[in-house]
Design goal:
By secondary structure, the protein is α/β, with parallel strands linked by helices. The chain has helices spanning 3-11, 24-28, 44-57, 68-83, 95-98, 103-108, 124-127, 153-165, 177-184, 188-192, 218-230, 239-269, 296-310, 335-338, 342-351; strands at 14-15, 61-65, 87-90, 111-114, 136-140, 169-174, 197-201, 212-216, 276-279, 287-292, 312-313, 319-320, 327-332. It has two domains: 3-21 and 251-351, Aspartate Aminotransferase, domain 1 (Alpha-Beta Complex); 24-250, Aspartate Aminotransferase, domain 2, CATH 3.40.640.10.
Length: 354
Amino acid sequence: MDDEVRALKAACTDTFLGNGLGRSRDLLATIDPDAGQDVYGDGGVVKQLEERIAALLGKPAAVFLPSGTMAQAATLRVHADRRGTRTIAWHPYCHLERHESQAHQRLHQLVGRSTGDLSRLLELSDLEKIAEPLAALVLELPQRDLGGQLPSWEDLAAQTGWARDRGAAVHLDGARLWEATAGYERSTAEIAALFDTVYVSFYKGVGALPGCCVAGPEQDIAQVREWRSRLGGTLFALWPAASSALARLDVTLEEMPARMRHARAIAEALQSVPEVRVLPDPPQTPMMHLLFATSADAFRATSRRLAEQTGLWLWPTASPTAEPGFVVTELTVGSATLRHKPEAIAEILSKLCT
């Protein structure tokens, strides 16, 4: 986002994207001024958050880290070191493979093995093609780059069982696990029980300051904690981000069923707008991809005009698709989305195709 786009967003007064405009004052308000301070990650509200996440996910222990890029690669290294093999299996859209500058390989000597197809969820048959020993299988719930799709519960259990039968760990990229609870209509602990280690994020669906936790067995989490220090993540004070996460977490979990209903209502309202398609339809979690029958340039110009004329912040750009004449964006349904009626959202989205 360049300075001109930042200035345009700063001038806007409303949005229906995710949890809102993310103003500094709003984020600062999520920090409890009386929160107990940690010292290098030890004690205070950081300990409280770790204990809360461990209990919420039904795991013996959890550790707070400043970023998911640090957290997940370190966790997978722990699994690899224990099993004596460096290969990690994952979907081609895996965040570690596509968005982390190959940190897993450069810092931890891990070998990522993509399996399956970009256009669909991972299937058991994809895993059964792998003959080499694995340190871990990574599954992302929901699969963000496929519009928030989820495998069926039966498929998920079969895939995690396949990995365990081969002696591999099973790790959940749960950056949006909170959304998956609404899609599965199951608790976080029920979902986490299928996995050895679980990563969760606090700045995405939760809308808190950046930060994350990894939960799992005490021995694994102790090693991840050591890696946090080696990688420079054990800052002198982690309490502001931890306090923000605690303030927003329960509110978000309580809101998730309503976000799920709202997502489906938006998709239903868009049935009368043929220029906008929803993927998947109906949404499987409180997020979806929207395909617009327009060009990237036209989309950008219309979005800017709406921002300038109405003060409504939308996506500044849309991404190209393999289908000529269509561009795509991602709509995450959050607390800001709930403030707008589905019919009103559909009407605004239709204008982006003009």
